[in-house]
Design a protein that fits this description.
This protein has one domain: TIM Barrel. It is 41% helix and 17% strand. Strands 7-6-5-4-3-2-1-8 form an eight-stranded parallel β-sheet. Helix 6 links the parallel strand 5 and strand 6. Helix 4 packs across helix 5. The chain binds pyridoxal-5'-phosphate (PLP).
């Protein structure tokens, strides 16, 4: 691994290549640097190299980093327990992993009147894996509808962590499925600003970009292996 700056440049080059292949504007793909389990000094190093957005899964670890690096834009991308929604609603700018009305209702209430609305994505369990977080596609329209009533949430799009596969065709098929769900929800509801697709990680960002990802979530390729 090189320096964080070199790694960010390499990831950006991969995004640019994938966009060129897919005839997409590279500006349409945003990079979320997943800093989970990494120290705030590495976040600072990435900020100094021009990175603005960071993703975290582990709340206590994240809160510490947010207090040290408040000038970043913070995204929560982990599983959400109900007793953690207050801290998530208070300290983050985006949440990618909302999968139930109950959690959406709590985040809305706890976001409060003072802050800007919380940007949220609904996590879809695209392969219907029993142990994976996320709403099944059949239940997605109802969850969209119930989430729309919440004034302190801004529904921005869909997120998925598809099953792992080394087969680029399989990877792409899962990402296309999420993209099609986004289009179908856009047709059913009038939702300005509901156009984000959070999909793709270090190992499959090319397939995600080819299927329309607007946020790719990259940890290892920027910060190195986690222990
Ligand atoms: C850890 C994690 C990532 C980053 O994965 P890498 O393979 O390290 O790039 C992306 N998204 C979610 C939800 C994660 O938990």
């Amino acid at each position: 691994m090189g320096s964080i700056k070199d790694n960010l440049l390499r990831v950006q080059a991969r995004i640019n290549d994938a966009c060129a292949t897919a005839s997409r504007n590279p500006g349409s793909v945003k990079l979320l640097a997943v800093s989970k389990a990494k120290p705030s000094s590495m976040v600072r190093e990435a900020i100094d190299a021009g990175q603005s957005d960071f993703g975290e899964n582990y709340l206590q670890d994240a809160l510490l980093k947010i207090s040290v690096v408040p000038d970043a834009t913070w995204h929560y991308i982990g599983a959400i327990q109900s007793n953690k929604t207050r801290e998530i609603a208070t300290h983050f700018d985006w949440v990618h992993t909302v999968a139930s009305e109950k959690i959406a209702r709590r985040l809305n209430a706890q976001r409060g009147e003072s802050a800007l609305p919380l940007n949220i994505m609904l996590q879809v369990n695209v392969n219907r894996e029993p142990d994976k977080n996320g709403v099944n596609e059949d239940d997605l329209p109802a969850l969209v509808e119930s989430t729309l009533q919440f004034d302190h949430l801004r529904l921005r799009g869909l997120m998925a962590i598809p099953e792992k596969s080394d087969d680029v065709k399989r990877q792409r098929a899962n990402f296309v499925k999420l993209a099609e769900l986004l289009s179908s929800i856009q047709r059913q509801f009038c939702l300005p600003g509901f156009d984000e697709l959070s999909m793709g990680m270090s190992a499959d960002l090319e397939a995600a970009v080819s299927a329309g990802a607007t946020w790719i979530r990259i940890g290892t390729a920027i910060f190195g292996e986690r222990h």
